[in-house]
Amino acid sequence: MSRAFNRKKDKSWMHTPEALAKHFIAYNAKFLGNTEVDQPKGTEVVKDAVRKLKFQRHIKKSEGQKIPKVELQISIYGVKILDPKTKEVQHNCQLHRISFCADDKTDKRIFTFICKDSESNKHLCYVFDSEKCAEEITLTIGQAFDLAYKKFLESGGKDVETRKQIGSLQKRIQELESENTELKKQLQALESQLLIAQVPPGGGNSKAPTDIFDMVPFSPVAPLVPLPASNTSPPPPPARPAEIRKDLFGAEPFDPFICGAAEFPPDIQSRLDEMQEGFKMGLTVEGTVFSLDPLEGRC
What we know:
5 helices, two-stranded antiparallel ribbon, 7-stranded antiparallel beta sheet, 35% helix, alpha+beta
């Protein structure tokens, strides 16, 4: 590795300052991966990382896996590694966290940079393979550093601090959004449990129970409680219901418990008296007379 950030100050850069300050420069490359290193800079450090990642990539290639292609977007704010088709950001390496960048003179397709991870605070070496642009990409990252340093001097260091505060706020916003999503899920679960608890057994139907023939069983009225009988007179007959049901022919059914002698018509009553008198005197059946008196013999 022969190139790093120790460029000569009089070296002319490849891009206009506005291109890196207001926009970004995009390159396509193959991403061999990243690996943890012990030091934030050094030629031997990146050499060991390149050998390690090349060996891992050779094993994956023998298994049929291809080296993934990525798009690099370089600006004064950092280096973004994106999927070239979906434009999804895979890694966002902020410029103030990049401590070393170099290309390999023995293999002009390889270039690397070391960046400190924002979460684990570990130093990771990123290795790329670009057949034609390895040196140009390294120079572009160096130009972005030069412009960012000039801007830092012009702002008196406030610009870097502002970016750090913005980064911290963005991270906090993501954490709060994740917590809000989790709380919404817990609230929906509690509402579901509350609705289940309010539903009565059987689905809330108030339908009366039925028998095996799907008929509502008969509910008899409260039984009549007879009044206690006195010593002098028998208990009165039960009160006749106001509405008397009739049979199939429209006649009122006979009730021996509520019918008295005075209720029969005069002709029927006289006929009953004659029949009772006949029973007393004797009953003639086909010429034979039977006496109801036990003292009398058969005639």
